[in-house]
Design brief:
Length: about 180
């Protein structure tokens, strides 16, 4: 059991993404209208933001600020004051994600855009580090690298999906801010 927990938490980006999908499915099943397209779009986006942004980035904050040596070792880098900086940036993303869970379109865009730029920048850094040093540590390659690239794409796709089901019949809506 301990090994399973270690695996889940060392691949936390994937773990929280999967938990978000499960939570969205439960929310849809319990919501009036069930699995209607607008419910699917709303709940997938809301729970993606809650789990993949708010909770995952809060977890990242805790690990980088309070367990900086562990985080650095997992990435295959030396510990530095940068660990705390990443942690506090993660806390900011977590706060915006929590506000965006049931927020309007613009706060949801902000909750996806900020982390997307951070993740894509991190992916570039990890790829360079792999090319220059061969560092294949779990926090530098594998699930972490793939999630840095793919989770923002999924977030933007879910935001577009939600906007395309807002009732206007126009993909992206007609400027309508949803709740």
């Amino acid at each position: 059991m301990g090994e399973l927990i270690r695996l889940a938490m060392s691949n936390f980006t994937l773990t929280f993404f999967v938990l978000g999908v499960v939570a969205a499915l439960i929310a849809m099943a319990l919501k009036p209208g069930g699995f209607a397209l607008d419910n699917v779009a709303e709940e997938l986006l809301a729970y993606f933001i809650l789990f993949t942004v708010a909770i995952a980035y809060f977890y990242n904050f805790v690990v980088h600020v309070f367990f900086g040596d562990v985080a650095a070792s997992f990435i295959g880098w030396a510990n530095s004051p940068f660990q705390a900086e990443v942690g506090y940036a993660s806390l900011g993303f977590a706060a915006v994600g929590l506000l965006a869970f049931k927020g309007n379109c613009m706060v949801r865009l902000a909750a996806i855009l900020g982390p997307a730029l951070f993740q894509w920048g991190a992916a570039i850094g990890h790829i360079r580090n792999i090319a220059e040093t061969g560092n294949m540590a779990p926090g530098n390659a594998g699930v972490m690298l793939y999630s840095d690239i793919l989770l923002p794409v999924i977030g933007f796709a879910l935001l577009w999906f939600k906007r395309s089901t807002d009732g206007s019949g126009i993909p992206g809506g007609a400027g309508k801010a949803y709740g």
